[in-house]
Write a sequence for this structure.
C-alpha cells in the first residue's frame, strides 16, 4: 500500500488501505491521521468511516469512534445493502465505552429487531443490563443465549454471576454436566 500513498498522497484508496493496515498493526494514531485525511476527501464511503471508527476505538477515542460509526450508519442506511449487524454492534460498543449506554441499548434493540436470536447482540445487551444492575432481565437474556448456543462458556459464566443463578437450576445443571465431561 505504501507505493500507492507515495504516488498519490491524496488518493483515497491508498490512504484508506495504509490507514487500515497501520491500525491493525497497532499504529492507531498514524492510522487515524491518514483515515481522517481520506475522510475529508471522500465523505460518502461508508467503509472508510468504518475503518476510521475501528482505528479510533482501538486508540481509545470512543467519542470519535461514535462519530465515525454514526456517519457510516447514515451512509449505509441510504445504500441498497443497508446497515450491517456488525456496524451496529461496533457503534453500540463505542457508545457504551463513551458512557452513552441508553444509546448503545437502542442500537442493540435495532439489531435484535432485525435478528432476534443474534448471540452477540443478546450477550452485549445482557452485559450492559447487568452493569446497570438490571439482573433479572440480564439473567433471562443469558438464558436465551444458552438455549440457542448451549456450548457458549461465556454465557454460562455470565449467567452464574447474574445474581440469580441457583442450585438445582436445570441450565446450571446442564452447564456442570457439560464441563465435567470435558
Amino acid at each position: 500500500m505504501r507505493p500507492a500513498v507515495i504516488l498519490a498522497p491524496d488518493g483515497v484508496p491508498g490512504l484508506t488501505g495504509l490507514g487500515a493496515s497501520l491500525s491493525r498493526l497497532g499504529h492507531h494514531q498514524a492510522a487515524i491521521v491518514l483515515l481522517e485525511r481520506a475522510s475529508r476527501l471522500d465523505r460518502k464511503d461508508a467503509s472508510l468511516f468504518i475503518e476510521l471508527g475501528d482505528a479510533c476505538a482501538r486508540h481509545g477515542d470512543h467519542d470519535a469512534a461514535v462519530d465515525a460509526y454514526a456517519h457510516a450508519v447514515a451512509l449505509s442506511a441510504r445504500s441498497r445493502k443497508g446497515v450491517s449487524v456488525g456496524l451496529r454492534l461496533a457503534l453500540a460498543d463505542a457508545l457504551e465505552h463513551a458512557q452513552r449506554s441508553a444509546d448503545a441499548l437502542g442500537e442493540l434493540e435495532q439489531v435484535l429487531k432485525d435478528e432476534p436470536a443474534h448471540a452477540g447482540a443478546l450477550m452485549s445487551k445482557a452485559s450492559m443490563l447487568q452493569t446497570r444492575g438490571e439482573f433479572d432481565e440480564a439473567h433471562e437474556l443469558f438464558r436465551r443465549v444458552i438455549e440457542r448456543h448451549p456450548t457458549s462458556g461465556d454465557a454460562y459464566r455470565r449467567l452464574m454471576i447474574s445474581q440469580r443463578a441457583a442450585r438445582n437450576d436445570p441450565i446450571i445443571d446442564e452447564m456442570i454436566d457439560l464441563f465435567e465431561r470435558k
